[in-house]
Design goal:
This protein is an alpha+beta fold. It is 41% helix and 15% strand.
């Protein structure tokens, strides 16, 4: 973003005066007020310097304003360009840091016609294409968000519909068994209530006979007593026979009501561990963006050194504990904090080592064969699980698998661009 800070004349400000600047010298890299710019423009040493108005200077992005033409280490003007390190250098830099760099060129040759070069136009086109691609991708993702929102809504409706269907069916089954219970209870109760009524009538009759028998023994004549005893004996015998018949039959059987819940119904609470599964099915993207140039690697400056000029050197050795000698290392990862993560295929595990090469701990073990691993971001490492058709994300600080990605094919390799 361009700067909007008010600029003061550098020369006047050094003298404690705050005069507003009107121009900026691109070579002196200082601001001038109107009185100070006149001698600067007339001096033999600076009259050919290029200047720009403060208004135009403030249109320059802040990070560009911070780029200086002078070496911060030696306070001397950049005059050379090191192709090996791809950086500008002052004369003293060549003896301090670039003694072994042979491909040094005049900086003026590198910067010649840089603004009118084809690369600038190509980059301008690239910026436009990238912006359009971002806009297209954002629109695409917003559409995808709307789509999955609708999918979530439909999934909720399906879950609730299924829940209601099950509830309605269970209500129907419940009402059926309650009706059956009511019918059988009523049948049993009616039978016993009827029998109780009959027996109560006989009991009342026997009570009356007992009372009459008592009075008869007190006041009846012998003849009346003789005939009365025979009648009472007959009634008593009939009642006794009635009770015996009831007892020998099934009238006194204990009919108990009992409910037996369907085993299929009970299994719902025992066997149904979830309402269902929510899966994320991954398919190829339908997003279409503009293809970038195949020559994106073109630079405004000459290429750096070839692989034949790169001189590798020994840096670090990892110390494997005695009980871990038989490691089958399929991948080694260097984390941002310089710790090391090793993927051991033999025991299907991730191991962490300190930046000094000392073993710290086992991060996690896998049930499937791990074939490759790479750093993703923060504390996250991705591991390819081959024939399990999965890539998993592992939090190497929390020692846990935090996400799984399913594939319709084997996953023997994994890489990340962030």
């Amino acid at each position: 973003m361009a700067s909007s800070v008010k600029q003061f004349c550098t020369i006047c400000y050094d003298d404690g005066i705050s005069n507003s600047a009107v121009t900026w010298c691109t070579e002196c890299e200082i601001f001038f007020c109107e009185p100070c710019q006149k001698p600067h423009g007339k001096s033999r040493l600076s009259k050919n310097h290029k200047t720009m108005s403060v208004e135009n200077y403030q249109k320059i992005p802040t990070f560009i304003q911070e780029i200086s033409s002078q070496c911060k280490d030696h306070s001397k003007k950049f005059e050379l360009y090191c192709s090996y390190h791809a950086c500008p250098c002052c004369v003293q830099c060549t003896t301090d840091k670039h003694q072994k760099c042979h491909d040094m060129k005049p900086l003026s040759d590198i910067l010649k016609q840089v603004k009118s070069s084809a690369s600038v136009q190509l980059l301008k086109t690239d910026l436009k294409d990238v912006k359009e691609n971002l806009d297209t991708a954002i629109k695409y993702l917003k559409t995808r968000i709307s789509t999955i929102n609708n999918q979530k809504k439909k999934a909720i409706e399906e879950i609730q519909k299924t829940r209601k269907s099950i509830a309605d069916y269970l209500n129907k089954l419940e009402q059926t068994i309650l009706d059956d219970l009511e019918f059988k209870h009523s049948k049993l109760k009616l039978r016993m209530t009827t029998l109780v009524g009959q027996m109560e009538q006989r009991a009342s009759k026997m009570k009356q006979i007992r009372s009459e028998f008592t009075e008869m023994t007190k006041h009846a004549t012998e003849l009346q007593m003789y005939i009365g005893l025979r009648e009472i004996e007959k009634t008593t015998s009939q009642t006794a026979k009635y009770i015996e018949d009831l007892e020998s039959g099934d009238s006194f059987y204990e009919n108990n009501l009992e409910v037996k819940i369907s085993s299929a119904l009970r299994s719902i609470s025992q066997d149904a561990k979830s309402f269902g599964d929510i899966k994320i099915n991954t398919t190829s993207s339908t997003l279409q963006i503009k293809t970038g140039r195949k020559d994106q690697a073109q630079h405004l400056v000459p290429k750096g050194p070839g692989i034949d000029l790169i001189k590798p050197s020994f840096s670090k050795k990892l110390i494997i504990p005695e009980n871990m000698r038989f490691l089958d290392i399929y991948a080694t990862i260097i984390l941002p904090d310089s710790k090391f993560v090793i993927l051991d295929y033999n025991k299907k595990q991730l191991l962490m080592f300190s930046n000094d090469g000392i073993f710290i701990r086992q991060i996690v073990t896998f049930t499937d064969d791990p074939f490759d691993a790479c750093f993703v971001k923060n504390n996250t490492v991705a591991v390819a699980l081959g024939e399990a058709n999965q890539t998993v994300f592992v939090d190497v600080e929390k020692n846990t698998i935090i996400e799984r990605i399913e594939f319709p094919h084997k996953c023997d390799g994994v890489a990340s661009d962030g």
